[in-house]
Design brief:
GO terms for molecular function: oxidoreductase activity. The protein is an alpha/beta fold and 317 residues long. It contains eleven helices and ten strands. A hairpin with a 6-residue loop joins β1 and β2.
Length: 317
């Protein structure tokens, strides 16, 4: 890689990842194949190596059935020859036809993801959401099979509560199979509830990495959505504008203040705040153009001081 971004190792693994994970939800959605390639090239050139997607991306788009992001990413991997430079993460559990975390769904979804990605292994394979209708023993054992077969290097969980994550870890230990090494919770200055103290304490105790998603709150925390500001032409604009309430304005004001102090953008400050939270190894953020990648990477070299972190904490409460 040509960049100088330092890598951090996910505890209990040999996965060394950059401190900002590139979200792949835009691939095949707001970024077509050409734009996606430009984003990926810029991210790697800047020192990034950690890419996150899911089999269900982008099924929410009319005419899409899911798998579009993996397909675009797989095409880029084949053309670029950079598979060995990437820590590749994807998820199972929400795509039509393979929903849930039964053994049947996990195995079928994994094979489909491997085909779309054009690779023989997934570096980090997430349970996208918890599945209370499937015994955890079945889910954990199925993930363990994929690791034992070499199709997956490590497994992880997304959107799990502390209790369900703890019981999954216990079952993995009892079965003697791979345990979850990372958790992907929602976390940003406007959404702190999903990553509470109970989860943070569990992750610290069990040496599990947090890889939070939504660091920019759908683009709102970049500061481009303002009262009386120009309309933003984006599929996310409607949701972002809804955040422009008293709390949203307070957070934007704090971001403006810290951005002025540091010379960084509001988006970089928002990502740096997430990165500073306990057990966080790499926040996930997306870019819709290559130009936006620089802002994401800038956050990796931004260290907020105690007063700046406190100002952002206070505004976001």
């Amino acid at each position: 890689m040509t960049g100088t971004t330092h890598l951090a190792t996910i505890p209990r693994t040999d996965l060394a990842v950059s401190p900002i994970c590139l979200g792949g939800n835009v691939f095949g959605w707001t970024a077509d194949e050409t734009a996606s390639a430009g984003i990926l090239d810029a991210y790697l050139a800047g020192g990034g190596n950690f890419i996150d997607t899911a089999d269900v991306y982008s099924a929410w788009v009319s005419g899409h059935g899911g798998g579009e992001s993996e397909t675009v990413l797989g095409g880029w991997l084949a053309r670029s020859g950079r598979r060995d430079d990437i820590v590749l993460a994807t998820k199972v559990g929400q795509a039509d036809g393979v929903k849930g975390l039964s053994r049947t769904s996990i195995r079928a979804a994994a094979e489909a993801s491997l085909r779309r990605l054009g690779t023989d292994h997934i570096d980090l394979y997430y349970a996208h959401v918890d599945d209370p209708d499937t015994p955890q023993e079945e889910t954990v054992a199925a993930f363990g099979e994929l690791v034992a077969e070499g199709k997956v290097r490590q497994v992880a969980a997304s959107n799990f509560t502390a209790d369900r994550l703890a019981s999954s870890l216990r079952i993995a230990d009892e079965l003697g199979v791979a345990r979850y090494v990372a958790l992907q919770p929602a976390l940003n200055l406007l959404n702190r509830d999903a990553f509470g103290a109970d989860l943070q304490q569990l992750l610290e105790r069990e040496q599990i990495a947090a890889v939070p998603y939504g660091a920019l709150a759908g683009g709102f925390l970049t500061g481009k959505y303002r009262d009386g500001g120009p309309a933003v032409d984006s599929p996310r604009a409607a949701n972002a504008v809804r955040r422009l309430d008293d709390r949203g304005r307070r957070v934007l004001a704090a971001l403006d203040e810290v951005a002025a102090q540091t010379g960084a953008t509001q988006g970089a400050v928002a990502i740096a705040w997430v990165a500073a939270q306990p057990t966080v190894v790499a926040p996930i953020a997306s870019a819709s153009t290559p130009a936006q990648v620089a802002d994401l990477l800038a956050a990796t070299s931004l260290s907020l001081d105690a007063a700046q972190l406190q100002a952002l904490d206070t505004a976001s409460r």
